[in-house]
């Protein structure tokens, strides 16, 4: 496995391949990331993972400075999965000058849910992903494939729409959420939880499953079910940003007809102590 830190070297290396399969990450890798790498491997003729903590997608009060950076351990895990190339640029390499040009996703998709609570988040994500795609796929003859986890459900939708609207030569694949035995979605930020919080953290996925079940129950009032779900988590000590049921296709609130036809997703974000967790449940 090659570990590459510069754009020029990555481009030289990838010039020998036709169709990269790419998994972008912020590092501190767990089994959720490794499942994406396993999914990517058969899609292309070279498997590339990137590790870059992208300052552009963090608000000033968020955890950019303390985000875990564990490059050596990450490379061991990627090598064991048979990843071919790790691209781990420095900030100076990826942003040698202030990134004045940015990719602005449509407000209708990016200003709600995560974008409401993390303003600018999807602009930061779209900008870095566009840049990484230029670097990874820029010299490939056939374009390629990229895999994103469904845990970041709205992010996956934003990236799919970006690729469609800019006609990027990349096929986007969604990876299923990998969970711990108690249902907690694996996440780098789970490492911030105290032992007691780690036990409580499984309640987020349970709340989403309960919300899904109540939404489907005959005669249910969706808004009342959401309010009950928020209240129940708040009473356990969580600070809830949102727990809500949306249509999978556009993340808009479902109509009565949508409730009949299905294809819904319950999405949630909530803070336990200083740790903000997100999760979702398709139903
Ligand atoms: N449990 C999981 N199952 C499947 N994919 C995941 C999981 N956790 C993260 N991913 C995906 O891995 C990719 C890289 O995500 P990232 O490096 O931010 O990891 P993370 O664990 O989500 O970190 P954070 O805790 O900072 O949100 C994203 O596409 C993300 O959706
Ligand atoms: C896609 C991504 C690597 C962009 O920084 C990040 O948002 C993530 O890890 O999900
Ligand atoms: N997992 C998405 C990246 C972030 O939360 O910043």
Automatic annotation (TrEMBL):
The active site is at residue 33. It is found in: Cytoplasm. Its EC number is 6.3.2.1. GO terms for cellular component: cytosol. Its main location: cytoplasm. Pathway: Cofactor biosynthesis; (R)-pantothenate biosynthesis; (R)-pantothenate from (R)-pantoate and beta-alanine: step 1/1. Belongs to the pantothenate synthetase family. HAMAP family: PanC. PANTHER family: CYTIDYLATE KINASE/PANTOATE-BETA-ALANINE LIGASE, PANTOATE--BETA-ALANINE LIGASE. NCBIfam families: panC (TIGR00018). Catalyzes the condensation of pantoate with beta-alanine in an ATP-dependent reaction via a pantoyl-adenylate intermediate. Homodimer. This is Pantothenate synthetase. The lineage of its organism: Bacteria, Pseudomonadati, Pseudomonadota, Betaproteobacteria, Burkholderiales.
């Amino acid at each position: 496995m090659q570990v590459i830190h510069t754009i020029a070297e990555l481009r030289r290396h990838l010039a020998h391949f036709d169709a990269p399969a790419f998994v972008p990450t912020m590092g501190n890798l767990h089994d959720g990331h490794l499942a994406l790498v396993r999914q990517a491997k058969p899609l292309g003729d070279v498997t590339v993972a990137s590790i870059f903590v992208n300052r552009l997608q963090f608000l000033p009060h968020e955890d950019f400075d303390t985000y875990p950076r564990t490059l050596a351990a990450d490379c061991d895990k990627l090598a064991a999965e048979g990843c071919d190339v790790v691209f781990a640029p420095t900030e100076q390499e990826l942003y040698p000058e202030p990134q004045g040009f940015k990719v602005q996703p449509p407000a209708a998709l990016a200003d709600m849910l995560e974008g409401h609570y993390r303003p600018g988040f999807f602009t930061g994500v779209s900008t870095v992903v566009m840049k990484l795609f230029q670097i990874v796929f820029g010299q490939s003859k056939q374009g390629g494939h990229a895999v994103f986890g469904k845990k970041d459900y709205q992010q996956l939708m934003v990236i799919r729409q970006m690729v469609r609207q800019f006609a990027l030569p990349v096929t986007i694949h969604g990876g299923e959420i990998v969970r711990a035995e108690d249902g907690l979605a694996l996440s780098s930020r789970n490492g911030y939880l105290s032992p007691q919080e780690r036990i409580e953290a499984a309640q987020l996925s349970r709340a989403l499953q309960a919300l899904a079940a109540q939404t489907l129950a005959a005669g249910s009032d969706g808004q009342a079910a959401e309010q009950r779900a928020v209240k129940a988590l708040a009473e356990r000590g969580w600070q809830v940003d949102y727990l809500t049921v949306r249509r999978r296709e556009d993340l808009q609130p479902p109509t009565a007809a949508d409730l009949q036809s299905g294809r819904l997703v319950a999405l949630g974000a909530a803070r336990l102590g200083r740790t903000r967790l997100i999760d979702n449940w398709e139903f």
